[in-house]
User: What shape does this take?
Amino acid sequence: MTKKIALYPGSFDPPTNGHLDIIEKGSKLFDKVIVAVMINPDKKGLFSVEERMEMLNEILKDFPNVEADSFNGLTVDFAAERKACVMLRGLRALSDFDSEFQLSLMNRRLNKDIQTVFLMTGMRWIYISSSIIKQAAQFGGEVKGMVPDFVRKKLKQKYKKKK
Ligand code: ADP
Assistant: This one.
């Protein structure tokens, strides 16, 4: 039987407990989950792609069927290259739905063999986004319990260096 592989694409700048929740749920549904960092030269993030990969690799240690990778170009092309038949996305609130709906229809048009599967976030992570974490952390706000500990340390180091 062919393995069901899901690709979970995103910026992960940085990865949060909300992302982790989707990864955990996805790892139970699919044989393999590939968490894929999108390389976007026009959008400079706080963390480099290498730093994001380092954080993901650390966080994903406990998940034997999940791995991290990064890619350039069209997400559907990368999904096909990695033999993924599913694109995994997380939904927080109604506000996510609009853009995610548009994106998934476009992706389906680009490659009809890849379906997007949406997973609802756990209630605890409904308001968590990478941007809100950065907004709080840059002014010394405590983000414990909202991001994995390793990420929390990396955020502290990053903002210390910037000062
Ligand atoms: P963000 O939207 O925080 O910048 P990404 O671009 O890395 O994050 O998003 C990748 C995927 O993860 C998207 O499908 C997004 O909806 C989902 N996601 C982000 N934060 C959460 C969360 N707190 N709970 C569930 N899914 C999330």
Notes: The mean pLDDT is 95. Residues 36 and 91 are 17 Å apart (CA to CA). The pocket of adenosine-5'-diphosphate is lined by residues 10-12, 16, 18-19, 21-22, 89-90, 92, 96, 121, 125, 128-131 (CB under 6 Å). The chain has one domain: 5-127.
